[in-house]
Design brief:
mainly alpha, two-stranded antiparallel sheet, 2 strands, membrane, (malaria parasite P. vivax) hypothetical protein, transmembrane, transmembrane helix
Length: about 475
C-alpha cells in the first residue's frame, strides 16, 4: 500500500456516522448479506468477537451507502468507504483482537466483498492502516470532542476544549516534527470545519470566548515549496550554528514563542481560551521585533522579515488590530496589553510602522542597510564570522573526543580481533629449518662421476642462513 491511497480527511460527517453506527450495532444480526461472517473460524477464543465486528461492518456499510445515495454527499460524504476502513481497525484494536487476526479479517472481507458490495465502493479500500492509525486516531478524537460540544453541549465546556487543544497541538507536532504530510492535510481540513461550525460552539459555551483558527499553512514537502525556501524554519532547525545562510539563527532560549511558530512553519498553536491566544500572539510579535532590532545590520534580515509578514502577520492582522484597539485605552491588567506597551516603548519606530503600514517595515530595513558604510558592513560580517567560530569551538571538544574514541576503538579491533586479516594479507613463506640434518661428506673425486656432466640451473644460487 502506498501513501497515496491513505486519506486522513474522513471525519467531516462524524456526527452522522455516529448515528448510523448505533443503528448498525443494534440491527447487525438481521443483515442477510452478512451471513458469510458466520463461517469465520480463525479467531479461536476471539472468534465470536470477530464475527460480530464483521457483521456490524457489513451493516454499517449498507446504511452509509444507502443514505449517501438517497441524501447525497451533503449528508454522507463520498469518503465513507475510507471512514469504514478506519472504523474497522479501530474496532479490532478497541476489542483487543490479536494483531495476527487483523490481516485475516481484511482478507476475508475482500474475498467476500461481492456478497455485500456489488457496486465496488469498497474496491481497494479495505486494507490495514496500522502504520497510520495513531495519527488518524488523533484527528478522530479531535473531531469527536468538538462534535460533543457542538451537538450536545457540555456541562464542562472548559475541559472539552482543553482536550481539543491537546489533540490539535499533538497533531501539529506530529505533522511538522514527525513529517506526516497527510496529517497536515487533515489538520487543514479540520481548520475549515472548526470555522464553519464555530457559532454552534459559542451557543453551547456562552461563557467562554473561543479563539479563531487562521488558515492552516502548508509549506515544505508536498506543498510545491521546498523546505530550504522556508527561512524561518531553517533558522530554528539549524540553531546549532550562530548563522545560517547569512541569517542569525533563532534559539528557543531567547525566542521561545517565535521558535514554536517557526518550527510549525507559521502555524500557531491552538489555545482553547481567547485570552491565552492573545498572549501567545503578542509574545510572538514582541520576540520578532526584538530579533529584528538585534540584527538590524544584517543585510539578509529583510528577506526573513518579508516571509514573516506574508506568511503570518498579514493573515493574523485582523486579530492583531483588535488587540491593539483593546489595549490602547487601558489594558494594564492584561498580559497581552502589557506586551503591547512593551512593544511601543522598546521598538517604537518598528511597532508604529507594523501597526499602520506593514509593508514599509521592509522598505525601511533595506534603506537602512544601504545607508551603512562599507566599513560598517565589513565589521558586522567579521563579528558574525567570529561568533560562528565561537559556536564551532563550543562543540569542537565533543567532536574531537568522539573522533579519538573511534580511532582507539578501531586500533583495539585491529590488534585483538581477526579484523587485522582484512588489512594484512601475509604471503605463505617456505619454512627454512634452523638446523640441517648431518649428511656424509664425500670428496668431489670420490664417487662423483654421475655429477661430472651436470649443468647448474642458470641464475639460481641458494644459500642457507642460520642465525647465531
Amino acid at each position: 500500500m502506498t501513501d497515496a491511497k491513505q486519506d486522513y480527511d474522513i471525519f467531516y460527517d462524524l456526527s452522522a456516522y455516529e448515528v448510523y453506527k448505533i443503528s448498525a450495532e443494534s440491527n447487525y444480526d438481521s443483515e442477510q448479506n452478512a451471513y458469510f461472517c458466520n463461517s469465520i473460524d480463525f479467531g479461536l477464543h476471539q472468534n465470536a468477537q470477530i464475527i460480530k465486528i464483521c457483521k456490524v461492518f457489513v451493516k454499517f456499510f449498507k446504511l452509509l451507502h444507502y443514505y449517501n445515495i438517497e441524501l447525497g454527499n451533503g449528508h454522507i460524504s463520498a469518503k465513507y468507504p475510507e471512514f469504514l476502513n478506519y472504523w474497522l481497525k479501530h474496532q479490532l484494536i478497541e476489542n483487543n483482537i490479536n494483531e495476527k487476526h487483523h490481516k485475516e479479517l481484511y482478507d476475508y472481507l475482500k474475498d467476500n466483498r461481492k456478497t455485500f458490495d456489488p457496486y465496488d465502493k469498497l474496491k481497494d479500500k479495505i486494507f490495514d492502516i496500522q502504520k497510520y492509525f495513531k495519527n488518524i486516531n488523533i484527528l478522530h478524537l479531535l473531531y469527536k470532542n468538538y462534535n460533543d460540544i457542538k451537538e450536545n453541549g457540555s456541562n464542562d465546556c472548559h475541559s472539552s476544549l482543553v482536550k481539543c487543544k491537546e489533540y490539535y497541538n499533538k497533531a501539529l507536532e506530529k505533522c511538522f516534527q514527525g513529517g506526516d504530510y497527510k496529517l497536515c492535510e487533515g489538520l487543514k481540513a479540520f481548520n475549515k470545519f472548526y470555522e464553519a461550525n464555530k457559532n454552534k460552539i459559542l451557543t453551547n459555551c456562552p461563557k467562554i470566548e473561543i479563539p479563531k483558527l487562521t488558515e492552516f499553512i502548508l509549506l515544505g514537502t508536498g506543498s510545491g515549496k521546498s523546505e530550504n525556501q522556508n527561512i524561518g524554519y531553517n533558522l530554528v532547525k539549524n540553531n546549532f550554528h550562530n548563522f545560517y545562510n547569512g541569517h542569525r539563527t533563532i534559539e528557543h532560549i531567547n525566542y521561545p514563542d517565535l521558535t514554536k511558530l517557526l518550527s510549525y512553519k507559521y502555524n500557531i498553536l491552538f489555545e482553547h481560551v481567547a485570552k491565552e491566544n492573545k498572549n501567545n500572539m503578542m509574545n510572538i510579535l514582541h520576540q520578532f521585533l526584538q530579533y529584528c532590532d538585534e540584527n538590524r545590520k544584517n543585510e539578509k534580515l529583510s528577506s526573513f522579515m518579508n516571509e514573516f509578514i506574508v506568511e503570518y502577520y498579514d493573515k493574523k492582522k485582523g486579530e492583531y488590530d483588535k488587540i491593539f484597539e483593546e489595549c490602547k485605552p487601558n489594558g494594564k491588567g492584561k498580559t497581552y496589553c502589557q506586551l503591547y506597551e512593551s512593544c511601543k516603548k522598546k521598538f517604537s519606530n518598528d511597532f508604529s510602522i507594523i501597526e499602520t503600514e506593514t509593508e514599509k517595515l521592509i522598505t525601511q530595513q533595506e534603506e537602512y542597510i544601504k545607508s551603512l558604510t562599507p566599513l560598517q558592513r565589513w565589521i558586522f560580517k567579521a563579528q558574525s564570522m567570529f561568533q560562528d567560530f565561537d559556536a564551532i569551538s563550543r562543540i569542537s571538544p565533543t567532536v574531537m573526543s568522539t573522533m579519538v574514541a573511534i580511532i582507539v576503538c578501531l586500533f583495539f579491533l585491529y590488534k585483538l580481533t581477526p579484523l587485522s586479516t582484512i588489512f594484512l594479507k601475509e604471503k605463505k613463506r617456505r619454512k627454512i629449518p634452523l638446523f640441517f640434518p648431518e649428511r656424509p661428506i664425500n670428496y668431489v673425486k670420490d664417487n662423483n662421476s654421475e655429477h661430472m656432466k651436470a649443468k647448474p640451473k642458470r641464475g639460481k644460487i641458494r644459500f642457507a642462513y642460520q642465525p647465531n
